[in-house]
Amino acid sequence: MRQTQISINIELDDNHIPEKITWNAQDGGVENQETKATMISVWDDKKFEALRIDLWTKEMPVDQMKVFLHQIFVSLGHTYQRATGEDDVADKIQEFAEEFALMSKIK
User: Fold this and answer.
1) 42 and 53 in contact (C-beta within 8 Å)?
2) Cα dist from 101 to 16, 21, 104, whole Å
3) Going by C-beta distance under 8 Å and a sequence separation of 6 or more, which residues neighbour residue 48?
4) What DSSP letter does each residue of the chain carry, written as one string?
5) pLDDT at 73
6) What is the pLDDT, as a whole number, of residue 107?
7) What is the mean pLDDT of the chain?
8) Whole-angstrom Cα distance, residue 20 to residue 33?
């Protein structure tokens, strides 16, 4: 069986606030790529719940965080459609993403 690895490295300040985030994905040709934010979700099928890690650096501008979240909402709609085939629900997620963009003044 073939294995691969994706890793995320976090440098913290004295108060445990992320100052620098880098990530690696050898199969994707990514090595020590710096980023200002990351959101990771994994599924715990024993507890039947999503576990999350949401991190962003002190340098992540609010306007970029709004765009980041908007893009996550859009991709959630696409993922939901591919996973379930339920176009009507996926469309509602897309509608919410557009409302979010308008309300947060990124569009």
Assistant:
1) no
2) 31, 26, 5
3) none
4) -----EEEEEEE-TTS-EEEEEEEEGGGTEEEEEESEEEEEEEETTTTEEEEEEEE-TT--HHHHHHHHHHHHHHHHHHHHHHH--HHHHHHHHHHHHHHHHHTT--
5) 98
6) 81
7) 97
8) 11
The answer, yes or no, to whether residue 45 has pLDDT greater than 90, is yes
Whole-angstrom CA distances from 10 to 19, 48, 69, 90 are: 8, 28, 20, 33
- Quickly tell me which residue has 């469309």 as its tokens: 91
Contact criterion met (CB below 8 Å) for 37 and 21: yes
Residue carrying structure tokens 């990771």: 40
Which DSSP string do the residues of 84-107 spell out, in sequence order? H--HHHHHHHHHHHHHHHHHTT--
Neighbours of 90 (CB within 10 A): 19
What does the block give as tokens for 64?
Answer: 């970029």
> What is the distance between the alpha carbons of residues 49 and 70, in angstroms, rounded to a whole number?
23
